[in-house]
Amino acid sequence: MAENEPGLEPLQEDARITSLDERLKRAKSEEAVRNGAAESKGDSSYALGNRVLAELIGSMVGGAVIGGTLDWLLGTSPWLLLVLLFLGIASAFRNIIRISNQRSK
């Protein structure tokens, strides 16, 4: 009985609309690739620079703080400070070299 009732018939798909949809999807995907590739390279370089800086500063400050504290506790000023500061610097450069030798993704 429902098939005999008057009502709106579904519209046929227009070829122009489907063509426009396809072109729009293609343009959006190309734009995403173009913008995504440029941003990800810049972001990864920025992150790598921050990681190298953190390694350098963290190792030096860590060595100096631990060395200064041990010097204060043991009364061997400034020898442990100098030794641990140079060990921190050596460790920082070793880590920076290791980071720079990794293959970029």
UniProtKB/TrEMBL annotation:
GO terms for biological process: proton transmembrane transport. The keyword Cell cycle does not apply. Pfam families: ATPase_gene1. The chain crosses the membrane at residues 79-97. Coiled coil: none annotated. A possible function for this protein is to guide the assembly of the membrane sector of the ATPase enzyme complex. Belongs to the bacterial AtpI family. This is ATP synthase protein I. It comes from Sphingomonas hengshuiensis.
